[in-house]
Design a protein that fits this description.
The complex is a heterodimer of chains A (351) and B (293). Chain A is mainly α. Chain A is built from 19 helices and two strands. The relative contact order of chain A is 0.14. The C terminus of chain A is likely disordered. By secondary structure, chain B is mainly α. The longest helix of chain B is centred in the first third of the chain and has 31 residues. The chains are: A mainly alpha (351), B mainly alpha (293). The interface between A and B is large, with 40 and 41 residues.
Chain lengths: 351, 293
């Protein structure tokens, strides 16, 4: 195990593995073009992977505001819905092409995020969470009421365009972009500022950080990404109505994926989304009627027994048993024994 | 003029129900600091219990209170012992998520058991009072009277009994309450049980007036949150005023905005929620415990 960690570090296997994974994902639809009749890769597999990429992006967005900044947004799917409706209305009612319509959808989500965020982001704790939940339900009902524009309860039908491989590639690229942006934010000064806000908002403010501005910027960024996913989803689904777009458990999926993977980490939401997607596929296939009940149970069990998430439990600093075990291996790989580690600590300690 | 009076009466009867529906939510939040996102589901459970007794044994809906109240008191007690006790001292995210999970489990279990079809409960009180030009359904007036009686009962209980005083003490200062010999865990369990019993009893009250269905909960939870936020945590007179305010707003918007008014009335409460939270997060009428940071 120690040898393995040393080799992993020496040859930078992490980067190679990531590159291989991305290459594999890019090449996956190729059999579909070369030999479609062989059915090595079906359209339905591409479709479900596309849905998985969407969930990864959505969970990563939620993690930006919930995990990094510490503002738990219980209505984040409102931006998904605004993106979907912005795109849908421009395409179905105005006859625009997809790309400009998608941009409008993203702009609608972003503008709404700035307006709503500058009010709600001043609230602390649960008040923010519930205000966002209220905003989510209010927007759904408003869209139902604005019948002449949004089609009301009977919904809108978008011009159908069913090219699964294209959606697959678009979402794959978008997912890589979003995760890269978040990885970059996590290492930037901006990211450290967000974490300072999460840990001690008053303290951050004392240090001269404009906390409200930082919160609004990150909130708007997350909302824009979410709105883009919403627009893409609307085009892929070709039909939108308030209940499908503003589906109750849409926010729950984001929260669940982030918590399962590890709140406030870059890779956590990705891993969590993959696990949730896999779990849901299994549940849908075998326990269709019970799948929401099981999802609710999973949520409670994660929260009670795995509050750090799967990845968080592997963190040497988390204080969990797995974390301690990982920490020991990492130290041995560094060439430290228990004694040198203790010695180093005792030197560092103030006299 | 008649339309105005009619709308006022409708708003007050709706507001009376809202006020009694919110009580349990406001108490759990005010005393324990737990925001119960499964609140509306307990209203739904009470309504379904009433519907079951009504359909199966022909019980009058208001008589069902005699069963719903004790049964849900015990359920609430067990729930607090098994689940809620574990999360009281943890971050509010934990309690939001656990009760959110609970709400999904309850509503979907009820959908499996009773299907998503809306159900109605029959009552002998189906006639109307006619006063001047306005009509008041008899069932609604009974609901209003029962709501006011229940609120008054709870208020007197909290103000004047030893148990009630210990609940208020635990809400105001937990450590001090512990020092003077109040057993916090027992008080919490009793409070949660009482709140759940009141919540489900409000479900019984609503059952003869509105159709009931498994997914009626989340809208009620949000309204409960809106009213509690307007009223201030755990203040019973505040809850009554907040409930009446929301009921009147909903009915007036629905009556006076042409065409889309009915749907807009529902929107009004959520918009009000966001506005009140932003402008005055500590509530309009003060509160039992200071607003958390």
């Amino acid at each position: 195990m120690v040898k393995f960690v040393q080799a992993w570090r020496k040859y930078r296997l992490g980067k190679w593995a990531l590159a291989l994974l991305i290459l594999f994902l890019f090449l996956l639809p190729v059999p579909q073009f070369v030999a479609p009749e062989a059915k090595l890769v079906t359209n339905s597999l591409l479709f479900s992977l596309t849905q998985m990429f969407m969930l990864i992006i959505l969970a990563s967005d939620w993690n930006l505001i919930g995990g990094f900044t510490g503002y738990y947004d219980f209505g984040h799917a409102v931006f998904f819905g605004l993106g979907a409706y912005g795109t849908g209305v421009m395409m179905a009612q105005m006859g625009w092409a997809f790309v400009p319509a998608l941009l409008i959808g993203a702009v609608v989500a972003a503008v709404f995020a700035i307006l709503l965020g500058s009010a709600t982001l001043r609230l602390r704790g649960a008040y923010f969470s519930i205000a966002m939940l209220g905003a989510f339900v209010a927007v759904r009902e408003i869209i139902r009421v604005l019948r002449p524009i949004t089609g009301g309860g009977s919904g809108l039908t978008l011009p159908p365009y069913l090219n699964r491989p294209l959606f697959y590639y678009v979402l794959l690229l978008f997912m890589i972009f979003v995760v890269w942006v978040i990885w970059w934010i996590r290492r930037s000064e901006f990211g450290y500022t967000l974490i300072a806000i999460r840990e001690d908002e008053v303290g951050a403010e004392m240090r001269g950080i404009n906390t409200t501005l930082h919160k609004i910027v990150v909130f708007t960024l997350a909302a824009t990404f979410t709105g883009l996913v919403g627009g893409l989803w609307a085009y892929q689904n070709t039909f939108i109505d308030p209940d499908v777009v503003f589906f109750d458990s849409r926010t729950l999926d984001m929260v669940l994926a982030t918590l399962l993977g590890g709140l406030g980490t870059v890779t956590g939401p990705v891993l969590g989304a993959v696990l949730i997607y896999w779990l849901r596929d299994v549940l849908w296939a075998n326990f269709l009627q019970y799948h929401l009940i099981i999802q609710g149970l999973v949520l409670i069990l994660i929260v009670l027994f795995l509050p750090e998430g799967v990845l968080g439990s592997f963190d040497p600093n988390s204080g969990t048993r797995i974390g301690g075990w990982v920490g020991k291996i990492l130290r041995e790989a560094d060439g430290e024994t228990e004694e040198t580690a203790n010695a180093a600590e005792s030197v560092e300690a103030p006299v | 003029m008649n339309q105005f009076l009619q709308a006022s009466v409708n708003g007050i009867t709706l507001g009376g129900f809202y006020a009694v529906m919110v009580l349990g939510f406001a108490i759990i939040w005010g005393v324990m600091g737990v925001i119960n996102l499964a609140h509306g589901e307990f209203v739904m459970v009470g309504a379904y219990l009433t519907w079951f007794l009504n359909k199966q044994y022909g019980w009058e809906p208001f008589l069902a209170l005699l069963v719903v109240f004790p049964v849900m008191f015990v359920m609430g007690y067990l729930l607090q012992k098994i689940l809620i006790n574990r999360i009281i001292d943890r971050s509010y995210l934990i309690s939001l998520l656990v009760t959110f999970g609970l709400s999904i489990i309850i509503s979907n279990s009820f959908k499996l058991m009773f299907s998503a079809t809306p159900r109605t409960v029959d009552t002998v009180l189906s006639s109307f009072w006619r006063v001047g030009g306005i009509t008041i359904p008899m069932a609604k007036s009974v609901v209003l009277i029962m709501s006011l009686l229940m609120m008054a009962g709870l208020y007197l209980f909290l103000q004047h009994t030893r148990r009630g005083k210990s609940i208020r003490a635990a809400a105001q200062n937990r450590e001090a309450a512990r020092i003077v010999g109040i057993e916090i865990a027992a008080v919490y369990a009793f409070t949660f049980a009482l709140a759940i019993a009141f919540t489900s009893a409000s479900g019984t009250l609503i059952s003869p007036i509105q159709p009931i269905f498994p997914f009626m909960g989340p809208a009620l939870t949000l309204k409960a949150f809106a009213i509690t936020a307007i009223a201030g945590l755990g203040s019973i007179p505040g809850v009554l005023l907040g409930g009446l305010l929301l009921g009147l707003i909903e009915v007036f918007v629905a009556t006076y905005v042409p065409g889309i008014g009915t749907n807009l009335g529902v929107v009004a409460s959520y918009v009000l929620l966001v506005v009140v939270l932003v402008v005055r997060p500590q509530g309009l009428f003060g509160s039992l415990r200071p607003a958390e940071g």
